[in-house]
Design a protein that fits this description.
Blueprint: H1 14-26, E1 32-39, E2 49-50, H2 54-62, H3 68-76, H4 82-89, E3 96-99, E4 105-106, E5 113-118, H5 119-124, H6 126-150, E6 155-157, H7 166-179, E7 183-184, H8 187-193, H9 203-207, H10 212-222, E8 228-230, H11 236-250, E9 256-259, H12 264-277, E10 284-288, H13 293-301, E11 308-311, H14 313-316, E12 326-333, E13 336-337, E14 352-357, E15 360-365, E16 373-374, E17 377-381, E18 384-385, H15 392-405, E19 422-423, H16 425-434
Parallel strand pairs: 6-7, 6-11, 8-9, 9-10, 10-11, 15-19
Antiparallel strand pairs: 1-5, 1-12, 2-4, 3-5, 3-17, 12-13, 14-15, 14-16, 17-18
Helix pairs in contact: 2-6, 3-4, 6-7, 6-13, 10-11, 11-12
């Protein structure tokens, strides 16, 4: 999905094109190279990341093509020479892609994906692939923390209206589901990926009736399926009493009530009492409104009788860490391993594989056979898939199993431990030789 009719091929930084001009002039555009995408350092309070965005990156790569309108713009604007435009007119992604499966827990310095092929095409995809994997991994990782804090209670994505544009809101819904959220309020995400959609009512619905009881009666009668009533339009405790009254008069019990404001921890206790005394012991209490993993953790630590959470702004914007600094670096050029030497920004040379064993991860070279399971798997060969894309449910299940398998100190919300991979002796020797 792109806005304002922009072609996906133009979703790049101009320097990718200026470098392409020089690659052509120097006669190196078709030399074989390898790039890897990884996170140099984990963000604050992150002990791990959940890899996501691979499927969107694959779709982008497989459909990459410059239209006549793209080429006309680039020629007329002086962005590219006629020579490069002619070359780009027939350019397609024909490289190889290896990647860790979506839903995999990863750590700093571990490649999430590797692109190998002609220099020109591997360079051109950098900006868009970073955009897709950066954001999706950021939100999936944030969602995993929210789910961790919820301790088995469902957490739902409510964030579309606060996302940084519709594309971000839609991708956030998918990523949050991978991270463990139980559903989303975003209908398009249900249509595209089968993610369960949920919804309650707004304050405007309640305010459209003469009183709360009339609003609740109407909604209980008119809405098919399980009903959740928003009870804090005026006074939360009075709203809870009105919900009981509406249930008695209609004979329909709401599945849940939702609190969206005030001291929801304290209010939830009184609401629970009112519901129980009114014969609605099975009605659950959901809360929303400026929630994140720390707020949820605190509410449950205080013993608040809350059964589920709607998490919006702070989830889809990853409020505490609003950007993930993953990078896409050249690791092999014309058959030779290369490395950037720049202090803490120094990279590792050569094409890599991550070997996961019971005692941690080892980062080695692709031609090594080390103990453990290799994480990077073939995805594309010559631009074509080597297997069908996995179902979203399978990706979500992988993320859940990977999260719970991590040590508890790595899953802490504040000050978690981290685990960088060991370097194989062969990789360490190569690094020392090129440094």
């Amino acid at each position: 999905m792109t806005l304002a009719g922009a072609s996906a091929a133009l979703l790049t930084d101009r320097y990718q094109l200026t470098m392409a001009e020089s690659y052509l002039a120097q006669g190196v555009a078709d030399e074989r190279v390898a790039f890897e995408l990884f996170v140099r350092e984990l963000p604050a309070d992150r002990g791990y990341l959940i890899a996501a965005g691979l499927e969107q990156a694959v779709d982008y790569m497989r459909n990459l093509a410059f239209t006549e309108a793209d080429l006309r713009y680039m020629r007329d604007s002086g962005t590219c020479t006629a020579l490069l435009c002619e070359r780009l007119s027939g350019e397609r992604f024909d490289a190889d892609l290896d990647a860790v499966p979506e839903g995999t827990a990863v750590h700093a310095m571990e490649p999430l994906l590797r692109v190998e092929g002609r220099r020109l095409i591997c360079q051109l995809v950098e900006s868009m692939v970073l955009n897709l994997v950066n954001f999706s991994t950021l939100i999936a990782s944030k969602a995993a923390r929210v789910v961790e804090a919820a301790q088995g209670r469902p957490a739902v994505d409510f964030g579309f209206r606060r996302a940084h544009g519709p594309d971000a809101g839609l991708m956030a819904a998918r990523s949050a589901y991978i991270g463990g959220c139980a559903g989303t309020a975003t209908v398009a995400a249900g249509a595209l990926w089968g993610i369960p959609t949920v919804g309650t009512i707004a304050h405007s619905y309640v305010m459209s009736f003469h009183n709360e009881v009339d609003a609740y009666r109407a909604f209980l009668r008119d809405h098919p399926g399980p009903v959740t009533l928003l009870i804090d339009t005026y006074d939360t405790l009075v709203g809870a009493q009105r919900a009981v009254e509406a249930a008695r008069s209609t004979g329909i019990s709401p599945e849940a009530v939702r609190l969206d404001s005030g001291d929801v921890g304290m209010l939830s206790r009184d609401v629970r009492r009112i519901l129980d005394e009114g014969g609605l012991a099975a009605t659950r209490i959901l809360v929303s409104g400026d929630l994140d993993e720390w707020v949820i953790e605190e509410l449950l630590a205080e013993g608040a009788p809350i059964d589920g959470f709607g998490v919006g702004t702070r989830l889809v914007t990853s409020y505490d860490v609003p950007a993930l600094g993953s990078i896409y670096k050249l690791v092999e050029s014309a058959g030779q391993p290369v490395m950037k030497i720049a202090g803490r920004k120094t990279t590792l040379p050569g094409r890599h594989q991550v070997f996961r064993d019971c005692d941690g991860d080892t980062l080695g070279l692709v031609d090594e056979a080390l103990p453990g399971m290799p994480l990077l798997q073939p995805v594309l060969r010559g631009g074509q898939r080597v297997s069908d894309s996995p179902a979203l449910e399978a990706i979500r299940d992988r993320a859940a199993s990977e999260r719970v398998a991590l040590p508890s100190d790595m899953r802490r919300l504040t000050g978690p431990s981290t685990r960088q991979p060991r370097l194989s002796p062969k990789l360490r020797a190569l690094k020392e030789r090129l440094a």
